[in-house]
Amino acid sequence: MQIVLVSGLSGSGKSIAIAVLEDVGFYCVDNLPLAMLQPLVDYLTREGHTRIAIAIDARSSASFAQLPRIAEALREQGADLRVIFLEAKTLTLVKRFSETRRRHPLSSDSVSLQEAIQLEREMLADVAPLAHRIDTSDLSAAALRLWIKDLVGQDRSRITLLFESFGFKHGIPLDADLVFDVRCLPNPHYVAELRPLTGRDQPVRDYLGASADAMALLADIRGFVENWLPCFIRDHRAYLTVAIGCTGGQHRSVYFAETLAVAFREREQVLVRHRELS
Fold first, then answer.
1. Is pLDDT above 70 for 62?
2. Confidence at residue 168, expressed as pLDDT on a 0 to 100 scale
3. Domain 2-152 in this protein, CATH class
4. What pTM value is reported for the model?
5. Cα dihedral angle (150, 89, 178, 155), rounded to 10 degrees?
6. Predicted confidence band of residue 99 (pLDDT cuts 50, 70, 90)
């Protein structure tokens, strides 16, 4: 039985995630009270369902303290359980609610939109540490769909290394476990013929590959991840997100993320994402 729990902030993309999971064959249930999770799993198992996705939100917050116990019980029964937590910056969420003219589920005449968002963050604070977190602030709906499909397709028995490039001028990803800054390196942006390209293109790769500083920093980051990855594995982590940032997220960080992904892919389960190229 494969079970995916989807939680997160209102406006962060939970509906998109559930729709994607339904499209790839999951039996989906939205806004299920957490106390009903085990009975639902038992019922759907008897009915022959093998892939279930369930959305839980702040309205179930009173029972969130039970989530670790419920999750452990399901895993002991042989379930492949994954928890995905979607989040976004407050300003992004305010913009999304304003554009769609939807009402936040916790807002009222006495609670403003920003206050409702902060209240929801606090109510969901116990869930985020148990999950793989995805910051959707700068993700398009199409990019989020691809991320969700890739995540549920990974082997849950092994840790997944996710290398993510980003631009510091757009903010550090909220879902990063490790963050490395490569802005000190030569910037291809200032080379006219390289400016329209990305770190995936061979001319940019050649330019950075010729930099002794870039090669030294790349080796240091690789060594750091190699040295500490066993510690994360011993901690039973399902995912480790390594974020690499440059100024705009187009050249240096993309090159580093791609190169590190290749280096680790032979022995680890690896995903690579480029936030600013989505």
1. no
2. 96
3. alpha beta
4. 0.74
5. -20
6. confident
For the ranges 34-43, 51-60, 148-157, 224-233, the lowest mean pLDDT is seen at: 148-157
Radius of gyration of the chain (CA): 20
Q: Is the dihedral of CA 132, 43, 49, 158 positive or negative?
A: positive
- Tell me the CA distances in angstroms from 20 to 3, 6, 97, one per residue in order: 14, 12, 21
Q: DSSP letter string over 168-231?
A: GGG---TT-SEEEE-TTS--GGGSTTTTTS-TTSHHHHHHHHT-HHHHHHHHHHHHHHHHHHHH
Cβ pair 51, 27 in contact under 8 A: yes
Question: Would you say 149 and 24 are in contact if contact means Cβ atoms under 8 Å apart?
Answer: yes
Q: How confident is the model at residue 57 (pLDDT cuts 50, 70, 90)?
A: confident
Q: pLDDT tens across 165-193, in order?
A: 999 999 999 889 999 999 999 999 999 99
104: left (phi over 0), alpha (psi -120 to 50) or beta: beta
Domain residue extents for the chain: 2-152, 160-277
Query: Residue 2 to residues 53, 66, 229: CA-CA distances in angstroms?
Result: 8, 20, 26
3-class state of residue 56 by DSSP? coil
Q: Name the residue with tokens 């452990």.
A: 72
pLDDT number for residue 63: 67
Q: Which residues contact 268 (CB under 8 A, 6 or more apart)?
A: 158, 159, 161, 229
How far, in Å, CA of 138 to CA of 135, rounded?
8
244-267 burial by CB neighbour count: b if 16+ within 10 A, else e? bbbbbbbbbbbbbbbbbbebbeee
Rounded CA-CA distance 162/119 in Å is: 30
